[in-house]
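Example A, followed by Example B.
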Amino acid sequence: MMELIKRNYWWPGICNDVRKYVQGCQECQQNKVQHMKKAAPLHPLPISKTPWEEISIDVIGPLLRSEDKDAILVVVDRFSKMIRLMATTTSISSSEVARIYRDNIWKIHGIPKKIISNRGPQFTSTFIGELCKALGIKRAISTAYHSQTDG
């Protein structure tokens, strides 16, 4: 397309303007050639059988700072879709995650059979791995760049 346009027209920033136009054109997006390999199909996770048996966890942030907190730790029950939100920081450590599990989730809802999280260092650390192993919790790490998995 750029070659065809440049045959008859020119202006400063032509490449950026054409790129923006094509990205905003529904017909262009539907008809463009895909050069990426097709990814393997994603399969939905099975539905939990009881409340708080399987949970998903993620950190939302950075957010505007309030009382030294700049993130929210989100825990979702995969059965009922009930959520628990805890104010935290973006630099939360795995030991802080374990404390939040203990004080805000396990104390109230019991220990889950499975925890689904993204690949954040606070969720994939050796410490959390050993904690889950000791408590008989299965850990599931979501696919990179597919945050829908986390609930």
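Example B, a separate protein, is given below in the same form.
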Amino acid sequence: MGSKVTVEAVELDLERLQLLPGLVNAHDHLQFSLFPRLGSGPYLNATEWARDIYHPEREPIRPHLDVPKHLRLIWGGLRNLVAGVTTVCHHDEYHPVFDSGFPIRVLKQFGWAHSLAFTQDVRERFEQTPPGWPFIIHLGEGTYSDAAAELLRLHELGALTERTVLVHAVGLSGEGWDLVKRVGAAAIWCPRSNLFTLAHTLGREVVRSGVRLALGTDSPLTAEGDLLDEIRFAQDSGARACELVGSAARDVLRLSPDLDDWIAVRGFGTQPKLVVIGGEIRLISPSLARQLPSSLAAEFHSLHVEGRQRVLIRWDIRRLLDETRAYLPYFRLAGREIRS
């Protein structure tokens, strides 16, 4: 508590703030961050939810899809940055915008398949994933016996090993979790998304079982808010949330330990006053920004997300708002109003 640090050749007085590693969001679909939450569950499984909500020719999906994908992805990065996330795992194709000064770090070294239901070449994708990378797949996202059986199907395909990461896994049985632990696989918990779609999520017995576990937001299609909301839920459930978005998440995603990513906060689970990624300031509170030289302060722009304190972001927020409103006059970020 209370220290001076030098970032970008500027000494900042961070009195009464804690310095923590940047948070890791282990599962997100960044391109959906402007979409409203959709569906009227609970559903038996994710496939039933998808069939209910996916009507791209109708409101509200059609106008949101009109927004160019790179803009939607940037908003997804900002949604995470405001919460103190420095690394996110985007469960979709890697996009060139991630290499163009994107707001946060996006995991690149992993293999993935959407799910057994929507991906036909799961085994091939697993085998093509380099040995040192995690392989991530939605699995067991349901509350009936077929969801539990998916784990055995994945095992029979030879795609369940110590580098396999299961997203959701709500439908796994006790025997299934025993198998996950035995092979050393991991899981990503997205509790608020699970409760919206399935009215069920992982129980305390699973969260505390010793299974390798990380925390994720999923997309605003099923969970409004950001990773701080998931952290609060996890804490209320008795989980060690600081590990699920910290050391455990870095283990699950096999992140490099050498990343120069950190945040300054009043306390764990609170909105950050400072976010540093790769040694560069990406977010700073207005009060801390007074310590910056004017030339550096000019690179930051105001962003106020409903329910969060106003911060300064190293991104031209007004321009981004104008570019987005050219396609979608009114929108919210993960269910929350945005102001510059």
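On Example B: The mean pLDDT is 96.
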